[in-house]
Structure formats: structure tokens, C-alpha cells
Amino acid sequence: MSTDRVIVARDGATWRIETQSGVIFFSSPVFEHTPLAVYDFALLALTLASASHNRHFVLPYPVTRSAYESFKLYAHALPLLSPDLLSLPTVDCPHIVDNSQTSYMERSVICLSGGIDSTYAVATARPSHTLLIQGADYPVEASSGFSQLNLRVTNICKQLGCEIIVVQTNLRSFMTDWGIQHPGLLVTCLNLFSVHFQIGGYAADLRLLQDVFRYPTGNMAGVADCLTHSTLPIFHVGANKSRAEKIAHLAYNHPELLQYVSICYDSPQTSDNCGTCSKCLWTRLHLHAIRDSNLRASVEMQLFGNLIPHHEIINRQAAPDSDRDLRITIHRCLAIASTLPEGSLKTDLTERARILTLLQQTLARESKFVYELRASRIEAELRARLEEQTALNQAIYASTSWRLTWPIRVVSEFVARKAKTPKSCE
Ligand SMILES: [Zn+2]
Fold first, then answer.
1. If you measure from the C-alpha of residue 139 to the centroid of ligand 1, how many angstroms do you get, rounded to a whole number?
2. How far apart are CA 23 and CA 15, in angstroms?
3. What pLDDT score was predicted for residue 17?
């Protein structure tokens, strides 16, 4: 592994981390007037780059002890979360200092991307400022999509009475696993503003229980715990609420914000919501947590420009494509159903979760059985298990409405791939 002694310097409104493999930059007009006493942001940025490119960096600038200790835990977590794409980062910090930087009191900043989670975070935590990062979900180069997103986020901030700061960075191009590493980028940017703010924050995407089903993701509470430190405490906002609860909260308390919310990744040129991708379809189902049907219809119109009946939404959704996706889908169905009054959507979601749970159990028993069979070769039990699965398949095929078409896709894509024939068990 090569060693890379980096240079960190500010040039006007831009902080630059110069490495042998390129320059990581961060630009914002705010930087012009703020000398930094500590370089915690550079430590975190280099930790992300080192994990992705297996490089050894030496950072010869002051770093606070609290940031060093926290980011070391984060560094240990990265290759465990993504062993195929990330390695153990090595960043040497010969100049560790005790916290000496003083922040302005009673000023706080939360990252705002314009989606449901961060809009909920800002609407409930009410920070003095929000941070929009150009180079996170959208490319760092100027684009009409980002301009429109900026307009959406600016409008959300106006409604909530907070000031917006925009920062541009190319840090993402030094990262190889966005799904795992993206909170590291958010927190790197927040640390650049540590002289301005007493506390920072970014939105939790999931409830704590969902973290368990979705493992691994980057936006988990356990990861957030390694990104906060006493120089700049960072809160993971909203981990006690589901997406359905966040949407219902916004609909009842801040209905004026929903016209500006951008939830879709399929329309980066416009920041609009396509209304038909997987994320938009799930959001449409989550909207049913709004009990007032007129309000729900108006929110769906604001977000997507049209209304789709819920049975059609379920029919359009793709079948789970992995064990993890199966787990996530079962939990989502049950989580949404639990927020609904008695009715056909609650029944459909509960039924869908039941069918997927049967499938999951069959798959789990099957793989266990293959192992047992190798040891004991009990043919009769193999037959019984296969008959059980055949009965399940027949039950699924014999269902009506979406229960006919949708599970067939599940079964064909999942069981056909995973089901073992007697021959393979010999
Ligand atoms: Zn979409």
C-alpha cells in the first residue's frame, strides 16, 4: 500500500485536500470568512477515500481527539459493512489536539436533500440552518435537475424559517459504495461548518427495527453513533418514526411542504417524482397512513400529479429479488398495514405479507433440509417437504386478483431459482 502525505488548504471559497490520486474539494461562499482550527472533516473524507482505494494517508494537521476516536470506529465498520468494495482505511494523524474550537451557541444545521426523511427531520427539529450538498444525490456539475432541487429545498426552508447553505463537493467520486458510505459524506460536510454550529444532524431513513431487517445499509443508527463526537455532536433525526408516520406528520402539520418534496431517483434531470418507480410506488402506499382521504388525494396529486388505486400499485410492484429484499418487503407490508384502518388495503398488505412469509419459511426449511438430508438421507421427509412446497405453489396459483399475478412472479423468480430438486440433494 502506498503512503500519501496530503496537503489541505483553503483557496478563497474552496477547501482542497490534495492527494497523489487527485484533489477532493468543498466549495461554499461561507468558507471565505472562516478559518478552521481543526481538520476533522479532512480525516473523515480521507477515511472514506482510503476505504475505497486501499490507500494509506498521512494527515499532518490538527484533528480533535473526539473526532479521531469516533471516526476510528467508523473506519473499522466500513469493511465489515461492505467487504467486497471497502477495505480497512488507514489515515495517520500525528497531530491530535483536545477540543479547542468554539462554536456559536444555539445554531444548528441539518442536511436537507428535499426527500421525505430530511424534510421531516428539519420540520420537527427546526434547526437554524440546513445544508444542501451538490455532489451527493446529484452530480457536482451544474445541472437543471440540481437547480430545480435547490429551488424545492429553498422553498421548504422559506416555509420553515431556516437559512439554507449549499456546498459543492466531488468527494463522492473518491467513494466506491455510495449505499454504505453516503452518511460519511454528509458528516464530512457538516464538520466543515463546525466553527459555525453547536450541533449538526442528518435524517434517519429507517426506524431502529428496520435497521435489523435492512442490514447492511450506511444510514443505520449504529453507524450514526460512530459519526458524532463532542467537537460537533451530530444527531440522527427521526429514527423513532416510520416513513408512513413521517408522511402523515407532514401531511397534517405542514401540508404546504409536500408540493416541494422530491423522493424519486429516476428523474435526476428534473428532480420530479416519476410516480412509477419502486420508491414512488411504495410512497404512494405509505400515503394511505393519511386517514383523511381528501387530504391523502391532494398529497398524492401534489407529489405525483395523478392518483393510482392501491390494488393497481400492488400489482405493479416488482417481486423481491433476494432474501434481504423478501425480509424488507414483508416488514414494509406489515408496517404499512399496522397504520391503516380496517379495509381492503390493510387486508391485501397483510395477505401479501402472509404469502411472502410462507415463501420465506419454505426457503429457509428447504436449505436446512438439504443439509440434513446429506447427513441422514431421509427420503420420506424430502417428499413431504416437496409436497408442502407444491401445495404452497398451488395455493398461490389458485388465488384471485393480484394474488394470482403478483405471487406468480415471486414464485417464478424466487422459488424456481432456489428450489432444490431431489437430484441435487443426493
Ligand atoms: Zn420515481
1. 18
2. 10
3. 98
Instruction: Select from 238, 259, 280 the last residue of a domain.
Output: 259
How far, in Å, from the CA of 1 to the mean position of ligand 1?
42
pTM listed for this prediction: 0.86
Distance 423 CA to ligand 1 centre (A): 43
Distance (Å) from CA 277 to ligand 1 centroid: 4
Q: Is the domain of 206 the same as that of 64? A: no
- Measured CA to CA, the distance from residue 47 to residue 42 in angstroms comes to 8
Map residue 91 onto helix, strand or coil.
Answer: strand
Residues 246-274 have a mean pLDDT of 90
Residues 136 and 247 in one domain: yes
The answer to whether residues 53 and 172 belong to one domain is no
Average pLDDT over residues 258-281: 89
Question: By mean pLDDT, which of 23-32, 159-168, 341-350, 361-370 is the weakest?
Answer: 361-370
C-alpha cell at 387: 409436497
Domain count for the chain: 2
Burial letters 22-43, b for 16+ CB under 10 A, else e: eebbbbbebbeeeebebbbbbb
Q: Tell me the mean pLDDT in the region 245-260.
A: 93
Domain end residue (candidates: 209, 240, 259): 259
* Pair (243, 168) in one structural domain: yes
Q: Which of 121, 124, 248, 243 is nearest to 186 (CA)?
A: 121
Is residue 394 assigned to a domain?
A: no
| 164, 112 Cβ separation under 8 angstroms | yes
Assess whether 65 and 144 both reside in one domain. no
Which domain, by its residues, includes 20?
A: 3-97
Task: Give residue 369 CA to ligand 1 midpoint distance, Å.
Answer: 40
> Does residue 128 sit in the same domain as residue 74?
no
Count of helix runs (H) and strand runs (E) in the chain: 16, 13
Q: To the nearest whole percent, how much of the chain has pLDDT over 90?
A: 67
Q: How far is the CA of 382 from the centre of ligand 1 (A)?
A: 44
Q: What are the pLDDT digits (tens) for 43-77?
A: 999 999 999 999 999 999 999 999 999 999 999 99
| 350-380 b/e (C-beta count within 10 Å ≥ 16 → b) | ebbbebbebbbebbeebeebeeebeeeeeee
The verdict on 148 and 205 lying in the same domain is yes
- Is 168 among the domain residues? yes
Query: Measured in whole angstroms, how far is the alpha carbon of residue 253 from the centre of its chain?
Result: 24
> Cell digits for 225?
453513533
Query: Which residues place a Cβ less than 5 A from the ion ligand 1?
Result: 264, 266, 274, 277, 280
